[in-house]
Amino acid sequence: MTRSRAYAVALVAAVAIAATTQAAAQPRTATAPTGQLTWGVHTTLAPTWFDPAETSGIITPFMVLYALHDALVKPMPGNAMTPSLAESWSASKDGLSYEFVLRKGVKFHNGDVMTAEDVKFSFERYRGASSTDLKAKVARVEVLDPHRVRFILKRPWPDFMTFYATPATGAAWIVPKKYVEKVGEDGFKKAPVGAGPYRFVSFKPGVELTLEAFDGYWRKTPSVKTLLFRVIPDESTRLAALKRGEVDIAYSITGPLAEELKRTPGLTLTPTFFPFTIWIWAPPPYPYDPKRAKQLLAEAGYPNGFDAADFSAEAVYGAAIGEPVVNYLQAVGIRLKLRLLERAAFYQELGEKKLRPVVQNGSGAPGNAPTRIEVNAVTGGRYAYGAYPDIDGLFSEQANEMNPRVRQQLLFKIQEMIHERVMFGPVIEPAFLNGVGPRPAVSGLGLIKNHAYSAPYEDLKLKPRP
Question: Do 422 and 450 fall into the same domain?
């Protein structure tokens, strides 16, 4: 046996052993769900966040998905790959197939029972981040029986579970096939049905989303009856709402406002820790040669710089981070106009490659180095404006390499090339600070490692009334 083959067998064996860990359903509570928790949300909610098939390679949709939907495998407290709708999974010794054993008796909010057909349908329907890569490497999905489904790969792929079963994508989040086919794509967004701990009640675009506890959730019945997500884009307004008790949790409170929150009796500043970076790019990529650039500017009649049109950014962090960036660029003669878009619209235009000449992007997406590189720096990536053939080649090589040490070296090389070619301009790695009011006993913030928002929602609790 070659060393590479030995590594592959060891890796697959480890996956198979780890996957047998059960996430057993917890005992049903005798007390019916009561009360309400309200969030002040920092970004405008959009129907695209309600549909796992459109997961966009950022963390935002999972604010909603963890409530409305459930996945075969997902991060939970203490385990980054917790068996959920699948009670176990295993990989073949040759690394070419993954088999999932589904939890029996799981019901969607409309009463339909989940089966392997729903799993197959959800994967084939998936069109979000990394869908091209997933479907290029998965040969087919086989329904073995109502509670067993097998994914057959075209070749061994050591990152299959990372691309499929972490929030790097939404491909493993399951929707009811019969219901989607009945109401259609638009109908599903208007009235989504999932298998999560909370069911959809109502949505007022730009205002609020209301969810209600689903007492048929397999893991346990939630203790909080109603979840209300209020859209409050302005940071100072969110803090004011928290102080007045109008919201119980306020996302993204920063700088002086965070200091003010810390000084306010009854409020708690609670950070969550996850990969969160902001960068800018100027597509298409150009060679980095400032001396030559200044010479060309002078020859063209712009010795003092030029007006460079739009600097596009999403609204939440565009003002706080994009504004200083624009000021720095203007200081050297590159004059830009800050253009802010709502998050859903921004990522739609970004994915369609409509934003230019300068774009500020950021990501808090889970996964690993390959999932983030694929989305942003490889030909065909959802947000990749430009790429290099040699980087594409190395990325393809690492994806098929079963030796972990060799893969690591390839990934280091790719990242080194991205850095040396200045494909992106790194800006900041911000902290995600949140405010919690006096009512939550368990806010859910920080329960799941590398997750930005409150979760799992079925574990949230209110303090007893005095």
Answer: no
